[in-house]
Amino acid sequence: MSTDNYSFISDISPMFRPYIQNIFQDLKLGLCKTKVDLERIGSTPIGSETQFRLVLPYCSKKLKWDIIFDPSTPWFAPDFRFDDDTFLNNADEELLAIGVPSLTKWNSSDPKSLSEVISELINMYKIYQVKKLNEDESSRASFEYSALLGNALTTEQDVEVWVGGHVVEFLIKLKINTSRLPELYNDGIDRNPGIDSALLLVRYPNSTNAELILSPFLTKVLGNISLPMMHQSGVLMDYVPMVTDIINNKIQDLLNNDRLKRELLAQLIVKYEGAILEHDASSAALLFEMNDFHWILQIDIGTNFPEKPPILTLRSVYHCSKGKPKFKILPSCPYNNFEGYIEQQAEIFKNECKGVIQIHQTLNLE
Amino acid sequence: MAYTEKVSLNGTALSFLLYECMNSVNSQEGFLIGDVTSQITNHISDSQNDNARLDTQIVIRTVLPLPSVSLFYLPTGTIKEDVLSELLSNVATEVVGWYKYRKNSSIKPTFRDKLISKGLQKYFEKYHGRKTFVSCNLSIKTSSISSTHTVIYRFGKINCFDMYEHVEDVTANLGEKLAGYKKPTKVSPHCIFHKIVKESNVQSSNAILVIQEAIDVRLIKEAKIAAKNECTIRELEAEIKQMSNILADKQVVDLEGAYNKILNEKFVNRDVEMAQACVEALKTPATVDILSIPNVILNRKSTITSDSANSEVQVEIKSRGISPELTPSSSTKPQTLNYAAVLKKSTDSASTSASAPKDNKTKNYDEDLISFDVEEKHNQKPIVISDNLSVGGSSPEY
């Protein structure tokens, strides 16, 4: 919830505030939990606003729906203004009673009432868009939609359709398996607000380029994924499973890499058991001694392991420069003759550290 | 045939409408009472075409404000017909429209407004058989220091395509662009005026003056009754306002209470879930530890099962050297415990089986880096040692 929303909520009259607070907590939107915004309409004095505009994400658009409460009859259901004039304009009683039951039986003492009405209205909007899509049975988009749903991998809940003047957009939720990812990258909740989802945005006409929209966490983890081109003769029914597989494979690769990393670290720790100073899931610091010279070897294994080798750093326990221990990052990390290489490098490092001191001493003499 | 439709509102009706709206607290609804007249004009020009035009005029004479909003409809816009017939009783045949006033709002009709317009149109068609039913949306915008008040209003109706369309309205002298001679509005031959003239049979030349006197007398009488009624109405309105304030306050309190209850439940649930997760984590030892040192698992198991095994643990700690490996190879040394022993001070391992098990527990407990006390019965120390290290601590399986 951004600070703008928060300050606007305090502008809303306390009579209706719990409804809106509940929207930010509980609203079940279609495909993923994207940001819901509040906008101000009208200009009543602060603290007693009774109408506001809700900006809801749908497909690639934002729906701007006005919600109007009446403070003289706060127990009555709110009124709505939709930005699409044709939506629900010839609705009859039964259609509304079935589609929006929470509005027919508005419970004014339940803070969840407004969230439920909004989710039901969005559902009806979805149905309305699908109806609009199927009005032209012969269009490519209509065929693609029915084919996509026909193969039972994607359900109606996973697709949001938007029919504009000449453009039809599909937003498809991909079924990817992210259950093991938090083990790898758990930075805390602030930077990972949403559920992990990958969405595919396809437009008709011009269906050659699909857009992949990833949640912030997945973007960080997977980086840039370039999608294969969609051919004119290609069908969504085949393309969507293909993209899903690409993403799942990439996630699996990441998990495998991480396992290798951990195994390597485990082996190192077990082998140099008494030498370990500290370690965590991706690096370790060991204290070694050779010919009465002690040094610390720090092994950092990055997330791109094994494409990128681990970074080795030697740190001196005797010398420091500018208040920090002297350190040297080794140029490479060999997988063969590891110990020999380290011994060599340690010798060089020792001389470098000592050498520096010698120079200092000579300067002081003069 | 061309077809035009206009709403004609005389000054009195408009000012009454605006007066009622301004004086309401927040919003108001009501009905527009008047007549619908149509006339066909045939415009003949040189082009020999018959330019017939059907002009429909919806004349609004007066306004019937309702005491409160949301009286005659449900949240989904369905009309409550019994309430409506009670409210309107005998004026139902003269209703030509309804109005909705919202303070500080846009005059675009809302989703419910449109449904109500349609519903009302159907309802009143039964009474006077006319298909025309207008709706008026009004609003007021005030400048920040309340020095300028702007009233906006618009008439419209739901057409045959179920779309809301704007209907032009004309008020005498209000923004009219026509200057010059205006034709008087046609009066229907069945209107009251003609009826009075016919029935009173006044033949003298000052017939108008006679009629005027009679009207004056009658009006004064009616005015007195109206004044009394207005007083009663004001009292009733004050009572209603008081009661609705009480109801509104109660509603606010109920809603807040319900919301706070939900929040508290969430917190309690969260705490309960966390506690349960902790208990679960303690019960099940990590099945696959990334270090995979057989001894570690053995030691842990033994300490969970019996307290007497503590002594074994202590002895083994003592045997561990503190100084780090000088040369990398350490595989020859017997693997007694994992490297966390380095963290332990040598004094710690002094406890032998002679001392009470409880002392062992508490002593070692202090040395732990992270203390984790969910249930006192468990001896958490050994478990915590390995859990300190974040290597694969959270991974379920490998």
Automatic annotation (TrEMBL), chain A:
One MF annotation (Gene Ontology) recorded for this entry: polyubiquitin modification-dependent protein binding
InterPro entries registered for this protein in UniProt: BRE (IPR010358)
Organism, as annotated: Vanessa tameamea (Kamehameha butterfly)
Cellular component terms per the entry's GO annotation: BRCA1-A complex; BRISC complex; cytoplasm
Subcellular location: Cytoplasm; Nucleus
GO aspect biological process, one term: mitotic G2 DNA damage checkpoint signaling
Broad class of the protein's primary localization: cytoplasm
Binding partners and assembly: Component of the ARISC complex. Component of the BRCA1-A complex. Component of the BRISC complex. Binds polyubiquitin.
Domain notes per entry: Contains 2 ubiquitin-conjugating enzyme family-like (UEV-like) regions. These regions lack the critical Cys residues required for ubiquitination but retain the ability to bind ubiquitin.
Protein name per Swiss-Prot or TrEMBL: BRISC and BRCA1-A complex member 2
Recorded family membership: Belongs to the BABAM2 family.
PANTHER family for the chain: BRISC AND BRCA1-A COMPLEX MEMBER 2
Free-text function comment from the UniProt entry: May play a role in homeostasis or cellular differentiation in cells of neural, epithelial and germline origins. May also act as a death receptor-associated anti-apoptotic protein, which inhibits the mitochondrial apoptotic pathway.
Superkingdom field: Eukaryota
Annotated keywords: Apoptosis, Cell cycle, Cell division, Chromatin regulator, Cytoplasm, DNA damage, DNA repair, Mitosis, Nucleus, Repeat, Ubl conjugation pathway
UniProtKB/TrEMBL annotation, chain B:
UniProt biased composition (Low complexity): 348-357
Cellular component terms per the entry's GO annotation: nucleus
Positions of the UniProt region annotated as Disordered: 316-335, 346-367
MF terms in GO: microtubule binding; polyubiquitin modification-dependent protein binding
Regions crossing the membrane: none
Coiled-coil stretches: 226-253
Regions of compositional bias (Polar residues) in chain numbering: 326-335
GO biological process assignments: attachment of spindle microtubules to kinetochore; mitotic spindle assembly; protein K63-linked deubiquitination
Keyword vocabulary terms for this entry: Coiled coil
One Pfam entry name: MPN_2A_DUB_like
Matches recorded under PANTHER family: ABRAXAS FAMILY MEMBER, OS07G0540200 PROTEIN
Protein name: BRCA1-A complex subunit Abraxas 1-like
